[in-house]
Prior knowledge:
There is one protein chain. The chain is α+β, with helices and mostly antiparallel strands. It has one domain (26-115). Helices cover 31% and strands 17% of the residues. Strands 1-2-3-4 form a four-stranded mixed β-sheet, with helices on one face. The longest helix has 13 residues, at 69-81. The radius of gyration is 13 Å and the shape is globular. The two termini are 19 Å apart.
Amino acid sequence: MMHGSVGRPHTVRRPGARTASVAHAVEVRANGDGSFTVTTGARAGTTHRVTVAPALLDELRAVDPTVTAEILVTESFAFLLEREPPTSILREFDLGVITRYFPEYVPELQRRLAAG
């Protein structure tokens, strides 16, 4: 695992945390401008450009102070992939948009983070 390597692809996993569906590997790469490139699946995967609003990160850090933006992006994609195929996920968005489609998003992430 290569945390902090801007521009190098890596998969972010938290010890004991759930990862995206077994059928969908998720790779998160920091772009260096505050955004992340997320690739799903090994073959015929999808690519997404994602940003993380500081307010959302702060809200979730209240539950788990060790949460980073990369972890939040990974957990968010796990959440999304449990509900829809990768081809249905927007290609470019801020994580805060997820609550428009899934009102349970923040409470579910709080639950996951609290469970560790």
